[in-house]
Amino acid sequence: MIAINALGTFSLMVGLLTLTPGLDTALVLRTAALGHRRRAWGVVLGIQSGTLIWGVLTSLGVTALLTASHLAYAILRWAGAAYLVWMGGRLLWATWRTSGDQGATGSGAGAEAAVGAGASNTLRGGWRQGIATNLLNPKMGAFYVAVLPQFLPAHASHLAAGVLLTGVHIVLAVLWACALIALAQVLRDRLQRPSMRRLLDRITGTVIAAFGLRLALGE
């Protein structure tokens, strides 16, 4: 199977990737900060479901076909960019639309609308949002294509080894999500203030939309 030093190197790489502030961190933190603990865990499970799919497909060699096909990669890249810009744009628009309303009800309604369909505090709604965000990100697939094969042993099942390595990534990401959700719960009272919620939504919306634009521009 996989050598201990190779497993440690892979764990370090994906650990640093997980800790780097980005789209997943912003989405989980923002959802938990709104007090939607169940939906936040749904987002986490959705993101990690997507990670598992990328890992399995890479182990089977399927994602190599995606990166080799310029058309397929471009279609996925544009679909992902459009989804992220739409989600971030709706979030930003909702904060500006409700900025004149200082009541908690107005701000809360805008935040709910910005998340999109199924914005209630449900595990399923969060899971759909998380897995869509992950699977529509071709850079996630490109990362796995570039990194995972280097750690697959030559004389062992690539699928079993790939699932094991992906499992390490998922465990580290879930532990990081636990810390984010716990932090959001500690700061919940402060983050529930209408002004803070608008600020958080503007930051999150900007991060998501910017990520989508970078994806569209191929950066």
Automatic annotation (TrEMBL):
Keywords: Cell membrane, Membrane, Transmembrane, Transmembrane helix. GO terms for cellular component: plasma membrane. The chain crosses the membrane at residues 6-29, 41-65, 71-93, 167-187. It is found in: Cell membrane. Pfam families: LysE (PF01810). It is a multi-pass membrane protein. GO terms for molecular function: amino acid transmembrane transporter activity. This is Lysine transporter LysE.
